[in-house]
Amino acid sequence: MDIPETVLHQVWLWQWRLPETMTTTDGRVLRVLRPGWWNYGPGPDFQAAVLTVDGVVWFGDVEVHLRTAEWSAHGHGADRRYGRVVLHVVYESTGRGVYHRDRFGAIPELALRTYIPPTAWAEFPVGLVCARRPTAPMCLTYLSAWSAEALRALIEQMGYVYLGERARSAARAMTDGEAPHQTLYRSLARGLGYVQAKHVLEGLARDVDWFTAQAIALREGPEALIRLWWDRVNGIRMAWPGPYRPAQDPWRRLAWLAVLCGLSEPDPMDHLLRVAEAGLRYGVADPAAWCRLWRGVVQGYTGLTWPSSCLRLPDGRTVGLRGRLVGLGRWTTLWWNAVLPVAMALWERSHGSLPSLEALRALQTGPLEDDAVQRAVRARFGLWQSYLPRRSPLVQLGLHGFHSLVCNEPVCSCPRCPLRKPEATEDPGP
Fold first, then answer.
1. In Å, how far from its chain's centre is CA 258?
2. What confidence tens digit (pLDDT) does each residue in 115-152 have?
3. Fewer CB atoms inside 10 Å of the end CB: C or N, the chain?
4. Is residue 132 classed exposed, middle or buried when 0-12, 13-18 and 19+ CB atoms within 10 A define those classes?
5. DSSP state, 116?
6. Element (DSSP H or E) covering residue 310
7. pTM (two decimals)
8. What 3-state DSSP class applies to 30?
9. Where are the domains positioned within the chain?
């Protein structure tokens, strides 16, 4: 099967349809922490990737080909630029290892066909990919070919793909035996964390599952659940990564989750999934009814408060909990990033396909919280409110996909980055 290599590049960059845990052709367990930066020049296709192989963290480059034999055909084994390659990604593998003269042993190889069968390519968003490998920063080349109207449609479609991949991740968890309520609970916990802490909060939700957490909160109160989480966090000697603002204090976010676990009528996980399903089903036909339903959801879940004005932790620290524990922007972000993907996965199970883009457009909720990725894309590419609706969640989510496609490198790492300031020159003097 002939697939353009640039398509495989973007499959790897987006991790399209790839599970969190994969297996290399020689049987090693692989997880991708960072796919690397798409290299526009000579050398490996992706640089500075971060992987775990059998639980050990590996840093290095990734080379992508259609078939295993292309590694030798291109002479990479003797090219010093490929000496840091730690993973060879192919669509079709021969099972024979590839080698580099500066490395001892075979380079691990991942066969994408294991996870993306030929029939799955019909779902690939061909309209979103760069037709050929760029030779310069894409913010200076790829974008210039798009009109404002087409660029808006592209970014919205990116948002749809972003949600679809989250839905498929939820579907894989449920296929592996995880209950839908637990999948949603875990997704909410992850969404409550700022970027450095989201994995810690998700780990707590795995360790103390929804059914256990709800039983404790209902029987003993949310304070007992906080104490249990405290014991688990300190038991693994894991300090909260930082820095973070007071509003992002993980214990403030966990206080909201503990109160949520203490609700019984209706069961919050069941209620949220039913609301999402109703929105997907009737939002297009009756937008006014959806808006009324959404207002009720917002009032109910942003109105959760702690029993007192502060939370006293076992180490003596006090966390102020006045006002809303989760504001409107954070709740809307949780809805789109945590609740909706699980509901979409259940919809696909019942209807055989994901909800349409039109159905998602009809879910008028107001904007998500702004974040660093959205700000970076707008700053680098001039994507301002003149033609991009700032209050569209699909567009906001699409900016994340857009960022990964056209600017996945660090700020100013490209010599011609629009944000790079001119280097200061010394005054030679008289």
1. 24
2. 999 998 888 876 666 655 655 555 555 555 566 777 77
3. C
4. exposed
5. S
6. strand 310-312
7. 0.72
8. strand
9. 5-135, 178-361
